[in-house]
Amino acid sequence: MSDQLAITIQTKEQFEELMMEKEKDPVILYFSSENCSVCHAVFPKLMNLVDDYPITVAKINVDEQMEIAGQSLVFTVPTILMMYEGREILRESRFVDFANIERTLGFATSN
Q: Is the pLDDT of residue 2 over 50?
């Protein structure tokens, strides 16, 4: 398992602060639900994948943070969004393509 820790977003203000702080840096937003067994299986794989990259991972529970999920147009879980320079550069929902995530990580962290 990865030594890297994910940030758990608990408020809209915390989310907005993270997005402002990381505006120029890549960040992964992991939208999930406590009742989603697929979410529980995908998250450890994602954390192992990002272990070698300088990237922040923020975990967002859609049941608790419905407004953030709605503003991010997240309608299914798990959903992984990668943001870079204030823009969405990757969206993976439900059936996650880890190879695609890794390619995008390579692009976003190579600068």
A: no
